[in-house]
Each structure stands twice: as structure tokens, then as C-alpha cells.
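#data-curation
PF: Archiving a pair of folding outputs for the training set. Convention for this channel: one message per protein, sequence first, C-alpha cells after, nothing in between. First:
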Amino acid sequence: MGIRKLKPTTPGQRHKVIGAFDTITASTPEKSLVTGKRSTGGRNNSGQMTMRYIGGGHKRKYRFIDFKRSKDGIPATVKSIEYDPNRTSRIALLYYADGEKSYIIAPNGLEVGQTVVSGSEAAPEVGNTLPMVNIPIGTIIHNIELRPGQGAKLVRSAGAFAQLTSKEGNYAIIKMPSGETRKILAACKATIGSVGNSDHGLEKSGKAGRSRWLGRRPHNRGVVMNPVDHPMGGGEGRASGGHPRSRTGLYAKGLKTRAPKKHSSKYIIERRKK
């Protein structure tokens, strides 16, 4: 896994840094695990634009990812590591011993031919999924459930990992990638290791066109708009001053938007670093 810096043969290549696809072993997805994916262009069911700066982009197929890992005790062999256009991480195709196939998020160090297994009897090795009550303290984990059997919700993007720091009664204490420390029920499952493709954060698109391929349209700043369009618009010349805020008037820097009585606040031991 690495990155490629291109020679400046054109203006678009000059600052381009892209991921290397050397770990990818298959170019076409497993047909039984994909479906068509419609893009909305930011429009709702009546064609009204509800999200700005969305549209275009390359067609994608959605790959069904097994976030639950509910086939306990059945070993699965890693058949291939594949690219997924819908997420920053790579995905791995598993062939189970009973003949079933599924995709999982590929952790760092997972290789073709390796065997992974899930369930409380599984060993705490890379790619295995087990309840946190059975995971040793200090282990690096990802794909963490918030409720038992719900499926992984936390720590799924490229290069991300959390750490199981301790256990208190029915709860496991987790250090999240943001720096937040929180309690999660120890019966919830997590996968051992960190998410692969850790060099994703070093990539640079190099040109505006690559954003268009991803379905992102040009984003114009509020300060260049007219007063009717944005709270920061208007004024003679380049007007400065006033508080940075959104189109709807919410302060853009420093305003706390978390609900003060949110039920999950009691599980947070230490808030994320500012």
C-alpha cells in the first residue's frame, strides 16, 4: 500500500498524488454482491434541489458489505482485495466454508489466502470479529457496533482505528480516532486491526475535474454572494468583518450543535480534542 506522485507533464499532473492499486487483486466485483446505485443530483422526489453542489460523477455499483459478521464459527478464506468507489477503504471478498460469499472492509495486513472467522471463540487476530468482552485490553480495533447485533457503525474509513483501553462491568472503554473516550456495551462486536488504505489521507486530486468525477460540483463562498443570498454577502469590494456563518445564519466556527440532553452523552467519558 502506498501512493504515487506523478511527473508534472501537464498542469493537472503537477500536484497529483494518488493511491497505488498494488494491493488490489481483482478488477471486477462479485456479481451476486452488487446492485445498481442511483444518484439523486441533490434533488428530492419532486425534483427540487435540496443539497447544493452535487451532480454528475461516474456511475457506481453498490457493493453489499457484511457489517454484522453474524456467521459465527464458520471460517472464511480471503479470495481477493478490491476497490470500492463508495468508500475510502478497500474491501475483501470472503468465501465461507459453507459456500456463501460476502464482502468485508479490508483491514491493514489482510492478504489473499488468509482465513478469518467471527464469533466469541475466534482468536484476536487481524480480520477476526468477536465480542469486545473477549478482546484483550489494549487491542487495536475497528468496525465497532453500538448495539449488539446492529452491525458496525464506528471506525470504518481508511486508516482509522480505535483502542480498547479497559472494561467496566458490562461496558468496554474505547479510545476513538477523534480522541473521544466512551463506553460501549462489551457484548458488541468489533474487528481486530486497523482499516486498510491508510495512505488515503495523503492523496491530492491535482485538478478540479477529479472532483467532478466524484459527483462534486463547484462550491461558491458566501462572501461573494449578494445580501439576499447569504448573511455574509454584499458590501463594497471585499468586505470583511462579521461572524462566519452558514446560509441559514448558524455560526460556522465554535457553535456547539450537539443536543444538550442527548441520551448518549452519559456514555462519553472524555470529549474529543478541540
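PF: Second:
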Amino acid sequence: MALKKLRPLTPGQRFKLVSDNADITHDKPEKSLLVPVKKSGGRDNTGKMTMRYIGGGHKQQYRIIDFKRDKAGVPATVKTIEYDPNRTARIALVVYADGEKRYIVAPNGLQVGQKIVSGKDAAPTVGNAMYLSDIPLGTVIHNIELRPGQGAIMARSAGSYAQLSARDGKYAIVKMPSGETRMILVTCMATIGSVSNADHNLEISGKAGRTRWQGRRPRTRPVAMNPVDHPMGGGEGRASGGHPRSRKGLPSKGYKTRYPKKASNKYIIEKRKK
């Protein structure tokens, strides 16, 4: 995937840097895999705003993604690579040998017409889903389960990947995208390769309106607020705001919020980098 810089014909295009969408092969989603999404505008069931800076945005439909890859041994053919408004990565429509259609998160390098498979008999090639017990050490993986049969919950966003470092008994040691090294049961599944659309973090929207299309409203800086509204508000002139903290007074910028006695701490070998 490459980025496209536009000619500055308008102020909004001067700094705009967007995907050229060369990897997308189809622009109409599979209707049988769509479900409607209702926007809340940040309001709860009584209509009260509980999340600020949310509202508007383009109408979207959710694409049902197969994160479990539970059709073991049944080969599938990649039919299309598509854009998904609900995630940063590309998605791929795959058609199984029995005729069933499913969406998967498209890994980098997946091509239309390519055959993929999941389960014990799969080879460690891009797009195949395998158990951590069968994946060769040092392999780059994504879409990782944390509990067997749960479905992938880790390394799913654009460009992210983890690496299988070692195996120790019933656990595999995986280096996560955050830099954390942790143990995961070898009976969990993962997909070979890294997630597509790796240049997503380099995109520049170019104008405020494009952010509004994504459903985000303007965010007020805490130091621009009054003391009644935020702990960092108030002061004469352009005051820095003191120690950075949240609206409820919880410190940020390095303050640890993870519960020190959390049960899963025993599975973490090396904490994530700051």
C-alpha cells in the first residue's frame, strides 16, 4: 500500500496525505455479511451525554468479521480485498469450498485468488490460521486469541503484528505489538503474517471536516477550560495547567493504572515499553 499526496488546489488538499487504495479490488460489500449500526452520539438510554466529543459522522454498516477461523481443513479462496469503515485494516472476502462466504482481516501480501486454510493441517503461509503449537518459532503473526476458541482479540489493527518467540510446555511466548512479552496457551490460534494497510498511521486528513465525517467532534483542550470544568483549567494568561491529569483528577503521562494484583500478571514475562 502506498500513500498519495494531492495537488494543493484547495487549502484542505495542501497537506492531505491519504491511501491510494491500490490494494482495494472491490467497492461493494457482501450484503449477507452486513448488519446495521446505530449511532449513539455519545448519549445513553436516557438521552444524556455520557461521552463527549462524539456525534455526526457518515452512515456505516458493520461487516461481520470471522475472528475465530473455525472452519478447520476447509480451503477458501480470496475473492476480494475491501475497505472497512469500522477498522483501520483492509478486509478480505473469502469463499470456502462448501460455498460459505466470510470476511477476514486481510494480512499484508494477501492476493485475490489465493487459497487459505485454517487448522492443524495448514502450512505457515500468509493468511493461514494455525494453533500456536504448530507455528514455527520466529514467525510473524496477528489476530491472536487469548483464550482457546474465544476468537482473535490481539494484533488486529493496521500494520500491527506479534512474533512467536518460544514455547515452554503448554504456553507459547509471544512478543506483542506493545513490546510486552507474555505467555499464551499453545491451543490458541493465530494468523500468519502482519496486518495490511501498514501506512495508515502516516495519513494526514488535511482538514477538520474529514474528522467530522468519522464521527468525532472538536475536542476542547483542558488548559483552555475553567477550573470548574477541569483540574488543568484556569490561570492567568496561557498557564501550562500544572501536572497533566484527567478530568476526574487521575494523573496521566506515565501513571500506572493497571491493578498490581491482577490475575494475568503471572503470564507477563516483560512489561510493555513506555
